Amino acid sequence: MEHAIIARAPGGPDVLDWAAIDLPAPGAGEVLVRHTAVGLNFIDTYFRSGLYPWPGDTLIPGGEAAGVVEAVGAGVAGLNPGDRVAYTTPNGACATARVLPADRLVPLPDTVSDEVAASVMLKGLTAHYLIHSSFAVNAGQTILVHAAAGGVGLLLGQWLAAKGVRAIGTAGGPDKVALALDHGYETVIDYRAGDFVQIVLDATGGKGVDCVYDSVGRDTWRGSLACLRKRGMFVSFGQSSGTLDDFRISDLASGSFSANRPVLFDYVATAEELRSRAAELFEAIAKGVLTPRIGQRFALRDTAPAHRALEGRQTTGATVLIP
Protein backbone atom coordinates (compact mmCIF):
# COMPACT_ATOMS: atom_id res chain seq x y z
CA MET A 1 0.00 0.00 0.00
CA GLU A 2 1.29 3.43 -0.95
CA HIS A 3 1.05 6.48 1.30
CA ALA A 4 0.90 10.23 0.81
CA ILE A 5 0.59 13.48 2.70
CA ILE A 6 -2.99 14.66 2.14
CA ALA A 7 -4.81 17.88 3.04
CA ARG A 8 -8.61 17.84 2.91
CA ALA A 9 -9.11 21.55 3.57
CA PRO A 10 -6.84 24.60 3.39
CA GLY A 11 -5.13 25.66 6.58
CA GLY A 12 -1.97 25.42 8.64
CA PRO A 13 0.43 22.48 8.84
CA ASP A 14 -2.05 20.59 11.05
CA VAL A 15 -4.26 19.87 8.01
CA LEU A 16 -1.56 17.55 6.61
CA ASP A 17 -2.27 13.86 7.22
CA TRP A 18 -0.31 10.68 6.41
CA ALA A 19 -2.78 8.47 4.58
CA ALA A 20 -2.92 5.31 2.44
CA ILE A 21 -3.58 5.84 -1.28
CA ASP A 22 -4.28 3.64 -4.28
CA LEU A 23 -2.18 4.12 -7.41
CA PRO A 24 -3.32 3.12 -10.90
CA ALA A 25 -1.02 1.34 -13.32
CA PRO A 26 0.66 3.78 -15.70
CA GLY A 27 -1.38 4.46 -18.82
CA ALA A 28 -0.22 5.38 -22.29
CA GLY A 29 2.63 7.87 -22.09
CA GLU A 30 2.88 7.53 -18.31
CA VAL A 31 5.49 6.26 -15.86
CA LEU A 32 5.26 4.92 -12.31
CA VAL A 33 8.04 6.40 -10.16
CA ARG A 34 8.95 5.21 -6.65
CA HIS A 35 10.22 8.22 -4.76
CA THR A 36 13.54 8.16 -2.93
CA ALA A 37 13.57 11.84 -1.93
CA VAL A 38 11.11 14.75 -2.07
CA GLY A 39 12.00 18.45 -1.94
CA LEU A 40 10.20 21.03 0.22
CA ASN A 41 9.50 24.57 -1.03
CA PHE A 42 7.59 27.65 0.04
CA ILE A 43 5.14 27.11 -2.82
CA ASP A 44 4.00 23.98 -0.96
CA THR A 45 2.82 26.18 1.91
CA TYR A 46 1.04 28.54 -0.50
CA PHE A 47 -1.05 25.68 -1.86
CA ARG A 48 -1.62 24.12 1.57
CA SER A 49 -2.88 27.41 3.05
CA GLY A 50 -5.22 28.12 0.15
CA LEU A 51 -3.24 31.13 -1.06
CA TYR A 52 -2.92 29.29 -4.38
CA PRO A 53 -6.00 27.44 -5.71
CA TRP A 54 -6.18 23.69 -5.21
CA PRO A 55 -6.28 21.33 -8.19
CA GLY A 56 -9.18 19.35 -6.66
CA ASP A 57 -11.10 18.61 -3.47
CA THR A 58 -8.00 17.30 -1.71
CA LEU A 59 -4.35 18.21 -2.01
CA ILE A 60 -1.13 16.22 -2.03
CA PRO A 61 1.57 18.91 -1.73
CA GLY A 62 5.12 18.75 -3.02
CA GLY A 63 6.70 20.25 -6.12
CA GLU A 64 9.90 18.26 -6.71
CA ALA A 65 11.15 14.73 -6.22
CA ALA A 66 13.58 12.06 -7.38
CA GLY A 67 13.13 8.34 -7.63
CA VAL A 68 13.34 5.18 -9.68
CA VAL A 69 11.14 4.11 -12.57
CA GLU A 70 9.10 1.03 -11.60
CA ALA A 71 6.85 0.63 -14.64
CA VAL A 72 6.14 2.37 -17.95
CA GLY A 73 2.96 2.63 -19.96
CA ALA A 74 2.42 2.07 -23.64
CA GLY A 75 4.29 4.34 -26.01
CA VAL A 76 6.94 5.49 -23.53
CA ALA A 77 10.39 5.63 -25.13
CA GLY A 78 13.72 6.37 -23.49
CA LEU A 79 12.69 5.41 -19.95
CA ASN A 80 12.88 1.91 -18.48
CA PRO A 81 12.35 0.26 -15.09
CA GLY A 82 15.36 0.93 -12.89
CA ASP A 83 16.16 4.32 -14.41
CA ARG A 84 16.83 7.17 -11.97
CA VAL A 85 14.68 10.22 -12.69
CA ALA A 86 13.61 13.54 -11.18
CA TYR A 87 10.85 16.04 -11.85
CA THR A 88 9.12 19.22 -10.77
CA THR A 89 5.35 19.79 -10.82
CA PRO A 90 3.10 22.18 -8.87
CA ASN A 91 1.81 19.47 -6.50
CA GLY A 92 1.64 15.76 -5.79
CA ALA A 93 5.21 14.84 -4.84
CA CYS A 94 4.64 14.09 -1.14
CA ALA A 95 3.90 10.43 -1.73
CA THR A 96 5.83 7.18 -1.65
CA ALA A 97 5.16 6.65 -5.37
CA ARG A 98 3.41 8.43 -8.22
CA VAL A 99 2.27 8.06 -11.82
CA LEU A 100 3.36 10.93 -14.08
CA PRO A 101 3.51 11.81 -17.77
CA ALA A 102 6.83 10.61 -19.16
CA ASP A 103 7.59 14.03 -20.68
CA ARG A 104 7.70 15.58 -17.19
CA LEU A 105 10.60 13.35 -16.11
CA VAL A 106 14.31 14.10 -16.45
CA PRO A 107 16.85 11.25 -16.38
CA LEU A 108 19.49 11.71 -13.70
CA PRO A 109 23.20 11.57 -14.46
CA ASP A 110 25.51 9.65 -12.14
CA THR A 111 27.00 12.97 -10.99
CA VAL A 112 23.76 13.98 -9.21
CA SER A 113 22.46 12.02 -6.22
CA ASP A 114 18.76 11.44 -5.61
CA GLU A 115 18.69 13.78 -2.59
CA VAL A 116 20.48 16.55 -4.46
CA ALA A 117 18.16 16.12 -7.45
CA ALA A 118 15.10 16.33 -5.17
CA SER A 119 16.51 19.51 -3.67
CA VAL A 120 17.24 21.31 -6.97
CA MET A 121 14.61 20.43 -9.53
CA LEU A 122 12.33 23.27 -8.45
CA LYS A 123 14.88 25.51 -6.74
CA GLY A 124 17.70 24.98 -9.24
CA LEU A 125 15.50 25.41 -12.29
CA THR A 126 14.08 28.54 -10.65
CA ALA A 127 17.59 29.92 -10.22
CA HIS A 128 18.31 29.00 -13.86
CA TYR A 129 15.37 30.85 -15.39
CA LEU A 130 15.83 33.85 -13.09
CA ILE A 131 19.39 34.58 -14.23
CA HIS A 132 19.04 33.39 -17.83
CA SER A 133 15.51 34.49 -18.75
CA SER A 134 13.63 36.73 -16.29
CA PHE A 135 16.63 39.05 -16.06
CA ALA A 136 19.53 37.67 -18.05
CA VAL A 137 22.60 38.74 -16.09
CA ASN A 138 25.92 39.89 -17.51
CA ALA A 139 29.36 40.08 -15.92
CA GLY A 140 29.95 43.34 -14.09
CA GLN A 141 26.34 43.85 -13.03
CA THR A 142 25.19 44.09 -9.41
CA ILE A 143 22.21 42.06 -8.22
CA LEU A 144 20.29 42.04 -4.92
CA VAL A 145 18.85 38.71 -3.73
CA HIS A 146 16.49 38.47 -0.79
CA ALA A 147 16.43 35.27 1.32
CA ALA A 148 20.04 34.68 0.30
CA ALA A 149 20.44 31.77 2.75
CA GLY A 150 17.43 29.87 1.42
CA GLY A 151 17.44 27.07 -1.11
CA VAL A 152 17.15 29.28 -4.19
CA GLY A 153 19.24 32.04 -2.63
CA LEU A 154 22.30 29.85 -2.01
CA LEU A 155 22.20 28.59 -5.61
CA LEU A 156 21.81 32.12 -6.97
CA GLY A 157 24.81 33.40 -5.01
CA GLN A 158 27.09 30.72 -6.43
CA TRP A 159 25.82 31.00 -10.00
CA LEU A 160 25.99 34.80 -10.05
CA ALA A 161 29.55 34.78 -8.72
CA ALA A 162 30.57 32.25 -11.39
CA LYS A 163 29.20 34.60 -14.05
CA GLY A 164 31.20 37.56 -12.75
CA VAL A 165 28.16 39.25 -11.24
CA ARG A 166 28.40 41.10 -7.94
CA ALA A 167 25.79 39.55 -5.63
CA ILE A 168 24.39 41.36 -2.60
CA GLY A 169 22.06 39.39 -0.34
CA THR A 170 19.79 39.82 2.62
CA ALA A 171 19.26 37.19 5.32
CA GLY A 172 17.85 36.96 8.83
CA GLY A 173 20.42 36.59 11.59
CA PRO A 174 24.21 36.26 11.77
CA ASP A 175 24.30 32.52 11.06
CA LYS A 176 22.35 32.91 7.82
CA VAL A 177 24.48 35.91 6.86
CA ALA A 178 27.64 33.85 7.31
CA LEU A 179 26.18 30.96 5.31
CA ALA A 180 25.29 33.21 2.37
CA LEU A 181 28.75 34.78 2.41
CA ASP A 182 30.17 31.28 1.96
CA HIS A 183 28.03 30.81 -1.16
CA GLY A 184 29.15 33.54 -3.52
CA TYR A 185 27.74 36.74 -2.06
CA GLU A 186 30.09 39.70 -1.79
CA THR A 187 27.89 41.45 0.78
CA VAL A 188 25.10 40.03 2.93
CA ILE A 189 22.85 42.29 5.00
CA ASP A 190 21.10 41.15 8.17
CA TYR A 191 17.67 42.65 7.56
CA ARG A 192 16.87 42.23 11.25
CA ALA A 193 19.65 44.62 12.22
CA GLY A 194 18.68 47.64 10.14
CA ASP A 195 17.55 49.19 6.87
CA PHE A 196 18.86 47.12 3.96
CA VAL A 197 18.07 49.89 1.47
CA GLN A 198 20.63 52.34 2.76
CA ILE A 199 23.29 49.65 3.00
CA VAL A 200 22.67 48.62 -0.61
CA LEU A 201 22.82 52.22 -1.79
CA ASP A 202 26.02 52.82 0.14
CA ALA A 203 27.55 49.64 -1.32
CA THR A 204 26.73 50.78 -4.86
CA GLY A 205 27.83 54.40 -4.49
CA GLY A 206 24.21 55.54 -4.54
CA LYS A 207 23.54 54.05 -7.98
CA GLY A 208 21.48 51.07 -6.90
CA VAL A 209 21.44 47.54 -8.32
CA ASP A 210 20.59 46.34 -11.81
CA CYS A 211 18.01 43.84 -10.60
CA VAL A 212 16.37 42.56 -7.43
CA TYR A 213 15.29 38.93 -7.14
CA ASP A 214 12.62 39.08 -4.43
CA SER A 215 10.91 35.98 -3.05
CA VAL A 216 9.87 37.59 0.24
CA GLY A 217 7.14 39.91 -0.99
CA ARG A 218 5.15 42.07 1.39
CA ASP A 219 8.01 42.90 3.76
CA THR A 220 10.56 43.77 1.09
CA TRP A 221 9.03 44.97 -2.19
CA ARG A 222 9.06 48.67 -1.39
CA GLY A 223 12.67 48.47 -0.29
CA SER A 224 13.48 46.41 -3.37
CA LEU A 225 12.27 49.20 -5.65
CA ALA A 226 14.22 51.76 -3.62
CA CYS A 227 17.41 49.73 -4.23
CA LEU A 228 17.11 49.74 -8.02
CA ARG A 229 19.12 51.87 -10.39
CA LYS A 230 17.21 53.87 -12.99
CA ARG A 231 15.52 51.47 -15.44
CA GLY A 232 16.36 48.52 -13.20
CA MET A 233 14.34 45.31 -13.00
CA PHE A 234 12.23 44.08 -10.09
CA VAL A 235 11.67 40.31 -10.28
CA SER A 236 9.08 39.12 -7.75
CA PHE A 237 9.07 35.32 -7.72
CA GLY A 238 7.53 34.55 -4.32
CA GLN A 239 5.83 35.99 -1.26
CA SER A 240 7.03 34.21 1.87
CA SER A 241 6.01 37.21 4.01
CA GLY A 242 2.69 37.79 2.23
CA THR A 243 1.33 39.08 -1.06
CA LEU A 244 2.08 42.49 -2.57
CA ASP A 245 -1.44 43.76 -1.99
CA ASP A 246 -0.54 47.45 -2.20
CA PHE A 247 1.65 47.28 -5.30
CA ARG A 248 0.58 49.52 -8.17
CA ILE A 249 2.03 49.86 -11.64
CA SER A 250 2.63 53.55 -10.91
CA ASP A 251 5.16 52.50 -8.24
CA LEU A 252 7.54 51.73 -11.09
CA ALA A 253 7.53 55.32 -12.30
CA SER A 254 9.98 56.56 -9.68
CA GLY A 255 12.87 55.09 -11.67
CA SER A 256 11.36 53.90 -14.95
CA PHE A 257 11.60 50.42 -13.48
CA SER A 258 10.47 47.18 -15.08
CA ALA A 259 8.74 44.40 -13.13
CA ASN A 260 8.36 40.70 -13.75
CA ARG A 261 6.29 38.06 -11.89
CA PRO A 262 7.53 34.74 -13.29
CA VAL A 263 6.32 31.22 -12.52
CA LEU A 264 8.71 28.32 -13.03
CA PHE A 265 6.27 26.10 -14.87
CA ASP A 266 5.93 28.62 -17.69
CA TYR A 267 9.69 28.29 -18.23
CA VAL A 268 9.67 24.47 -18.41
CA ALA A 269 6.36 24.06 -20.21
CA THR A 270 7.75 21.83 -22.94
CA ALA A 271 9.80 18.68 -22.52
CA GLU A 272 12.55 20.24 -24.62
CA GLU A 273 12.88 23.35 -22.46
CA LEU A 274 12.63 21.33 -19.26
CA ARG A 275 15.43 18.98 -20.25
CA SER A 276 17.60 21.77 -21.67
CA ARG A 277 17.45 23.78 -18.46
CA ALA A 278 17.93 20.65 -16.34
CA ALA A 279 20.98 19.65 -18.40
CA GLU A 280 22.60 23.04 -17.76
CA LEU A 281 21.74 22.78 -14.07
CA PHE A 282 23.23 19.29 -13.76
CA GLU A 283 26.33 20.39 -15.66
CA ALA A 284 26.84 23.28 -13.24
CA ILE A 285 26.61 20.82 -10.33
CA ALA A 286 29.02 18.36 -11.96
CA LYS A 287 31.59 21.11 -12.62
CA GLY A 288 31.39 22.43 -9.07
CA VAL A 289 29.89 25.76 -10.12
CA LEU A 290 26.99 24.89 -7.83
CA THR A 291 27.25 22.97 -4.58
CA PRO A 292 23.65 22.40 -3.44
CA ARG A 293 23.26 22.52 0.33
CA ILE A 294 20.74 20.28 2.06
CA GLY A 295 20.29 21.96 5.41
CA GLN A 296 17.81 19.54 6.98
CA ARG A 297 16.05 16.24 6.40
CA PHE A 298 12.66 15.04 7.64
CA ALA A 299 10.81 11.78 7.17
CA LEU A 300 8.12 12.20 4.53
CA ARG A 301 5.44 11.38 7.07
CA ASP A 302 6.76 14.37 9.10
CA THR A 303 5.93 16.89 6.39
CA ALA A 304 3.81 18.95 8.81
CA PRO A 305 6.72 19.81 11.16
CA ALA A 306 8.87 20.45 8.09
CA HIS A 307 6.29 23.04 6.95
CA ARG A 308 6.36 24.64 10.40
CA ALA A 309 10.15 24.91 10.32
CA LEU A 310 10.12 26.43 6.83
CA GLU A 311 7.43 28.99 7.62
CA GLY A 312 9.12 29.80 10.93
CA ARG A 313 12.33 30.69 9.05
CA GLN A 314 14.14 27.96 10.98
CA THR A 315 15.69 26.35 7.90
CA THR A 316 18.72 27.07 5.73
CA GLY A 317 19.42 25.77 2.26
CA ALA A 318 17.17 22.99 1.02
CA THR A 319 14.92 20.67 3.00
CA VAL A 320 14.52 17.07 1.81
CA LEU A 321 11.75 14.66 2.84
CA ILE A 322 12.70 10.97 2.89
CA PRO A 323 9.96 8.35 2.21
From TrEMBL:
<keyword id="KW-0560">Oxidoreductase</keyword>
<dbReference type="InterPro" id="IPR047618">
    <property type="entry name" value="QOR-like"/>
</dbReference>
<dbReference type="InterPro" id="IPR036291">
    <property type="entry name" value="NAD(P)-bd_dom_sf"/>
</dbReference>
<dbReference type="GO" id="GO:0035925">
    <property type="term" value="F:mRNA 3'-UTR AU-rich region binding"/>
</dbReference>
<dbReference type="InterPro" id="IPR013154">
    <property type="entry name" value="ADH-like_N"/>
</dbReference>
<dbReference type="GO" id="GO:0003960">
    <property type="term" value="F:quinone reductase (NADPH) activity"/>
</dbReference>
<protein>
    <submittedName>
        <fullName>NADPH2:quinone reductase</fullName>
    </submittedName>
</protein>
<keyword id="KW-0521">NADP</keyword>
<dbReference type="InterPro" id="IPR011032">
    <property type="entry name" value="GroES-like_sf"/>
</dbReference>
<dbReference type="GO" id="GO:0005829">
    <property type="term" value="C:cytosol"/>
</dbReference>
<dbReference type="InterPro" id="IPR020843">
    <property type="entry name" value="ER"/>
</dbReference>
<feature type="domain" description="Enoyl reductase (ER)">
    <location>
        <begin position="11"/>
        <end position="321"/>
    </location>
</feature>
<dbReference type="GO" id="GO:0070402">
    <property type="term" value="F:NADPH binding"/>
</dbReference>
<dbReference type="Pfam" id="PF00107">
    <property type="entry name" value="ADH_zinc_N"/>
</dbReference>
<dbReference type="InterPro" id="IPR013149">
    <property type="entry name" value="ADH-like_C"/>
</dbReference>
<dbReference type="Pfam" id="PF08240">
    <property type="entry name" value="ADH_N"/>
</dbReference>
